[in-house]
Amino acid sequence: MNPDHTQESPLVLVVDDEAVNRLILESNLKRQGFRIVSASSGQECLDLTRREQPDLVLLDIIMPGMDGFQTCQILKDAPETRDIPVIFLSALTDTGVKTKGFEAGGVDYVSKPFDAKELLARVRTHLTLRNQERQLRVYSEKLEEMVDERTTKLKQAEQDLQRNFDMQTALNQLLHLSLQELPLEELLQQCLDSILGITWLTLQNRGCIYLQEGEGDVYRMVAQRNLPENVQVQCATIVPGQCACGKAIAEQRILVVPDEDVEHNKLSPEGVEPHSNICVPIRSQHATLGLVNLFIQRDTLLTRQELVFLGAVANTLMQMILYKRAEQRMLHHVLHEPLSNLPNRTALLDGLNVEIKQARDMEGYRFALVLINLDRFNRFNESLGYDLGDKLILSSIQRILDERKAEEDVFHLGGDGFAVLTRQLREVADPLLLAERILDGLKQPHQLDGHEIQISASAGVVLSDARYDHGEDLLRDADIALHLAKSRGRGRFEVFSSMMHEKAKHAMQTFMDLRLALQREEFVLFYQPIICLTTRRTIGVEALIRWFHPARGMISPLDFIPLAEETGLILSMGRWVLEKACRDMREFAIVIDGEPPFMVSVNLSGKQFAQSDLYEQVEAVLQETDFPPECLKLEITESVVMENAEAATRILERLKGLNIKIAIDDFGTGYSSLSYLHRFSADILKVDRSFVSRMHMGDENLEIIRTIVTLAQALNMEVVAEGVETEEEVKTLTVLRCDYAQGFYFAKPMPLEQLVQGSLLGKGEQESDRREGPPDRRETSGRRDTDE
Ligand code: C2E
Ligand code: CA
Ligand code: CA
Fold it and tell me: Which ligand minimizes its atom distance to the CA of 607?
């Protein structure tokens, strides 16, 4: 096709065997601006038509040799000339000839002799037609081309879509995997398998995934597929920057390592087809968490789409890793004590349950639990500061860790509580020896920040027993044994026995009853007279609580005060005692008003003493009962005061502001030294019964009392001797110039009515044997002590 047709004037081929005809036609057409070529025979016409590609042929019908019809037929049969319009020139006018001409493919006739106008009109018409036709063809060809192009594009888009879909599916699959409750490394292995299974990626079916070890600089291979053994060994760990993978990690970008890379090639053993590698770092915001290394076909360039996909894969893996790590951290948090990072109480219960199951499944399997608690830790903690307290805990844990063996796990139960679980117990004595070793180890002084701190610990031991179904029960029993160790003097351990369990159950029942006792008005106050040793007059009384249990009869405070302390019931109970004592005395005072004022002593427990509104409570009771403050004496034991000497000093001073008196109870049994004494604004010291009752045994106790009396006098304090039982004791105390005495020798604690009726003011002796039973249990049980 001649592209210039539109610009150039049309070319017309004139075919006629008669030269005259040709001349006429040529001159006519030329004059109208056509270009002309001419031929004198059919054959010449064919040659010229092929060569010149005219826009139109004027063809004579009757020619020697090949006639016009034949020539036309041949032109129409050949594709390159088929479209050229042919107009026949004929002297014949009958329709039969015309029909033949149309059949041969001609488009028109021009009759000889020519009419110039007709000729031109016909030529022009057909040229125009031809032109239009040609344009149409060009247009339709273009259209076809366009359609083709669109179709390929559509196909491409469709393929892209399919891949996108595949990618999404693959990524979804990875996300799905990450929801499984599997260890991270197993998840990564599954992810790797799943990535390598995607067929449209130009991958070989080999690769591996690295994971950063801790926060460190080493990346360890945690998943691999089809890697030759030597690669697995040599590339087990990588360091940032050192090899191609290391470089991808250090530079945080995807790296394609070509086949020629020596480092990678030397690793490829026989039987592995030549390949390139692609190293895709798994990045989080700040760090490279790991790396995916895939074998790709040799020298392939990954498409953009593939690269984007691998980037998305790395991103998904990143999220999976971060998620799993957060999960692990949370789990760790749930099962560990933050201070020590040791497994905690929850972990211990899990461990105990595992052991209980093991013991049930396996004949003869035994285990043991040792529960350890520092003695009076709170005192250290408060006086030295929590910082040093924490250090003391950590140092204690180290001592325990030093003693344990492989099959023994150490737990930190929070604060100063620890536990050791012994699995596969061989000898029953083992946990006892372990407890002994641990307590000995803890007893050694701790050097902390230049302080030398000495502290003891107590322990409770439980041996496995078929009775146990739950870890909680075992832990509870260890706790009971531990408590017993504390109450038996601390710095020791006790092994749990079922008898203890009975006792604990009993304590539980007592606690339940105790809660109701106040409402049911089962408490009563007894009063024990306090005698002046010089005048032998009763100068006051100590209020002592009694519990009349509907079923068990009278219960000694020794049996319920510690429990009330532990459970907090002491607070309401204590308040009741204070109020009741004041009211009782108010009545009583009508009878015994005198000078010096008659005093009532009320005991305050440690918990009561620690109440922040103690001052307000006492003040309120004094007001409500209209009780003269100078007649009230509060007794606080030495150990409570010493628990936190500084705070105690402040509280005591404040209380003194109410114009009441303060006595330090059980003096001599606690930890305080006489040198502390001057710090407390106390008025009275009560020397503990243990010194009084042993005075006769040797000079030492006697000397202690003498020293206490001397010192008290120097500090302007008065001394009361507790538990005076014999005439001899009274004499000795008088000689020692002790001010007052209290004890069975003078009178036992008694109900209010008896006190009033007895009118024992000043004597007291005659009342001594009427009330409470023999002092049996008090002799043996002594003060019960619970820790902190
Ligand atoms: P405490 O304050 O040292 O009370 C003195 C205890 O010694 C009383 O025991 C008393 O009966 C006993 N006692 C007195 N004279 C003699 C004696 O000559 N020989 C012997 N063997 N014992 C004597 P009780 O009443 O059993 O009280 C025991 C402890 O219970 C008290 O020791 C006190 O710490 C506590 N307590 C009693 N009542 C209350 C109270 O209302 N509130 C508080 N917080 N504690 C109380
Ligand atoms: Ca007392
Ligand atoms: Ca006492």
Answer: 1
And the tokens for 300? 């392939």
178-335: what CATH class? Answer: alpha beta
What secondary structure letter does DSSP report for 274?
A: P
| φ/ψ of residue 720, rounded to 5 | -110, 130
Of the ligands numbered here, which is closest to the C-alpha atom of 530? Answer: 1
Q: Could you tell me if the CB of 665 is within 6 A of ligand 1?
A: yes
537-541 long-range contacts (CB < 8 A, ≥24 apart) are 537/761, 537/762, 538/598, 538/760, 538/761, 538/762, 538/763, 538/764, 539/596, 539/598, 539/599, 539/740, 540/598, 540/599, 540/600, 540/601, 540/631, 540/633, 541/585, 541/599, 541/600, 541/601, 541/755
* Domain topology for 523-762: TIM Barrel (3.20.20)
Q: What is the mean pLDDT of residues 37-64?
A: 94
In which residue ranges of the chain is CATH 3.30.450.40 found? 178-335
Q: Is 528 in the pocket of ligand 1 (CB under 6 A)?
A: yes
pTM: 0.47
The pLDDT tens digits of the residues spanning 218-248 come to 999 999 999 888 889 888 999 998 888 899 9
Give the CA angle between residues 489, 490, 493 to the nearest 5°: 110
pLDDT at 55 over 50: yes
Mutate to test the pocket of ligand 1, among 603, 608, 614 (most ligand atoms within 8 A of CB): 603
In the chain, the N- to C-terminal Cα span, in Å, equals 112
Best CATH choice for the domain 345-500 from the list 3.30.70.270, 1.10.10.10, 1.20.1640.10, 3.90.640.10? 3.30.70.270
Q: Where along the chain do the CATH 3.30.70.270 domains lie?
A: 345-500
| Mean pLDDT in residue range 722-736 | 94
Helix (H/G/I), strand (E/B), else coil: 144 = helix
pLDDT digits (tens, 9 = 90+) for 616-644: 999 999 999 999 999 999 999 988 888 77
Q: CATH homologous superfamily of domain 11-138?
A: Response regulator (3.40.50.2300)
